[in-house]
Design a protein that fits this description.
Helix content is 20%, strand content 33%. By secondary structure, it is of the alpha+beta class.
């Protein structure tokens, strides 16, 4: 059980931080995520029957993963399927040559990717609603 003194101290500290304009650590965004996404590239996918490749890109120390999100103002339910091809090693997609589906939230296309790795992002439409879709990748 928390003592009255400890509770009062925590309450005072939180009030002081909020008065100073500083959010508690639990409310602050991750610095790593912020720096990773701040270097994102914005691209546009135009619907086509076959998958489209973007790149070749080289991973950096800014992100540990290759991430993607859609920037769409269109109707709800637009998604893109994506995978990563590590071009120095294979012509197949990562993750057992499987695509993952991506929407407007940041999501990982490939995890724990070594810095300096060359890759292309392979994208295809989830369905025919994905006609002209702007998206971002961060790596």
């Amino acid at each position: 059980m928390i003592s009255t003194r400890a509770f009062a101290s925590a309450l005072f500290t939180t009030a002081a931080l909020l008065t100073a304009g500083v959010a508690p650590a639990s409310a602050q965004p991750s610095a790593a995520a912020t720096s990773c996404y701040s270097g994102a590239k914005t691209l546009t996918y135009h619907y086509q029957a076959a998958a489209k490749e973007y790149g070749t890109y080289t991973t950096t120390s800014r992100c540990n993963d290759i991430n993607m999100r859609l920037l769409t103002d269109g109707p709800q339910g637009i998604y893109l399927d994506a995978c990563v091809v590590f071009v120095d090693h294979t012509s197949k997609c990562n993750n057992d040559d499987a695509y993952t589906t991506h929407g407007t939230e940041w999501a990982t296309v490939a995890t724990d990717v070594k810095d300096g790795t060359h890759f292309v992002l392979r994208v295809h439409a989830y369905d025919i609603d994905a006609q002209n879709v702007t998206f971002q990748i961060a790596y």
